Amino acid sequence: MDIEHLKKAMDFTSAEKKLISSFDIPADAFIPLLLSLRDGGDWSYSVEDIKTIAVMDKTTVYDDEKKLGYSLEEIYLFINPVLNEEEGTVHRLEKCGNEIARMLVVRPYKVRVGSDRIIKATVHPLKNEIKVEELAQKELVFDGSTAYDIAHEMEHLMKKENKGEGLWEFKFK
User: Fold this and answer.
1) Fold for domain 3-167?
2) How many whole angstroms separate alpha carbon 125 and alpha carbon 122?
């Protein structure tokens, strides 16, 4: 790593610390959001007095005339989340952590998730900006991939292990 890259990484980390301190939330509660931002994906964190999940909702914005687009990332950090409602059933393949291969699981198509606080980070790759704000809402509704991801991370918080058929049960045709 060259010195300029190291300086930028240190400045970024310093900005993260400043951001975290502005929300009056224990710093470790932000771990899932920081992991989503740095490594991508969805994350959960749990200690005795606080539980958090971060889920990423991606939207591709594309201009057909300019032939230019970007993937807008919205990362939601839920502080002490609760699944208030689930709707529908979707069968899908998922892989998590140390699993050797993906497995077939059942997830809700739509979820209503409540939370003590919801912090949203919007990552705009064309502007090189990350806008972070606390939402006034205490409950949000998601469907599709983001709903599956929320259900998956909630399982981690509840220390439930999802069981399903392994990929090895599938047959080629």
Assistant:
1) Peptide Deformylase (3.90.45)
2) 10
